Amino acid sequence: MKLKNIKLIAVSLVALGAAGGLASCSSGTSTTKIVVWAPSEEEAVIKEVVDKYNKTAEFKINYTFTAVSEADGGTTLGNDPQVKNAPALVAAADDHIFSLAQKKIVQKLPTAWKEFVTTENTEVAIKGASYNGEVYGFPISTDNGYFLYYNKEVIKESDKGTLEGILAACKAANKKFRMDLANGWYVNSIPQAQGITGTDSLSFAADQDGIAIYNIGWDTDISAKAFKAVSELINVTYKDTLIMGADDVMTGGFQDESVVAGVSGTWMQPALENAIGKDNLGACKLPTFSVDGTAHQMASFTGTKVYVINKYRPSEEQRMAADLGKLLTSKEAQLVRFRVRNSLPCNKAALEDEAYTANITLGGAALVEQNQFAAVQSQSAEGRYWDVGKAMGQAIYDGKLSETDAAGATHTVEEWKAFLTTQCNVLRKSGK
Description:
The protein has helices at residues 13-18, 43-56, 70-79, 97-102, 111-120, 123-128, 163-172, 184-187, 221-237, 247-256, 269-276, 315-328, 331-341, 348-352, 354-357, 362-370, 377-380, 385-398, 413-428, and strands at 34-38, 63-67, 89-93, 130-131, 134-135, 137-141, 147-151, 176-178, 202-206, 212-216, 242-243, 259-264, 281-284, 288-291, 294-297, 300-302, 305-309, 374-376. The protein is an alpha/beta fold. The protein has a 5-stranded mixed sheet. Strands 11-8-12-7-13 form a 5-stranded mixed sheet. The termini are far apart.
């Protein structure tokens, strides 16, 4: 790893003014200290990368680390960018970019850093770090997606390819399949499936008041049929076989062998291997499900984690944050992160490096397979979507379309379509 060869970028006074005070810390601000918010697992990566850099750098990077998840980091920053011990650099999920940019909380990157992001990274990562043609962050990884894990002793090769096959195998063995359907992040797998509405059927743009207004096509006839088919599959044909819950439900279920298949991401692999043994754990793309006898490949979201710069911090802190963001998302740093955290790189050179290609994990390979059928999260969904997505997923799981409805009831396609239109219309208008 040749971090010593990474040069801090000097930005001209013209660019400095255009960027609202963002310039390189090579201007002599080596005594500046910044606060960094990132998940606890990221601390070891930052320490290794920065320690090596500082051994040869003329101007040292000086930081304090605070453990904050990407979800909480973006939300907390959005609520109060001047909170006590406010960070200059924050790790956030890419769907926070829209809100943070609208509120003018995060700093858009000047040309030199923008070119680093757009030339070094994959298309998905660039989209994740961007809004309205501007780049607002440094892509960290592209492993914010999900796929199928399964116990190979129960779920066979002939079962794993279809939702019907997985549920049948689980029911026959008196086991459970876990998928957190009442969650907007997972429910899109049904309407955005291939041959239903597709991965481009959910998008948004800001109106004149900066509110996200959605273009959503999830209330078509075929979509209503898909919701009806999956709901009846889990409420009638394989009743009580699919369970919901957070990742700890899945981990605990694998440990006591009550759960033998589930949907989650790369971060779950170590825990599941510990639960049932490495040889027994399988992973692959999501299954298909059938509507009127036709199989449809389940979709997913794919996303990027990004480092963003808090525009409310002093200019000298923003400068150091920018240099640290670049350093932590370089090829060399992403390979460190892959080794330490199993995080999939989004730097194109890192993706081609043998340190990655020779060691790609089971979950990493499954995610790459599933990403062919994934919608880019930052271009599809932001804060307003999640409650609507949750309501749709809860309806699938409960078989209820209203508060007075009987749980597990069988509904017509027309009833499902009317329910979906009501939900979609919430997103099609501002809600003010």
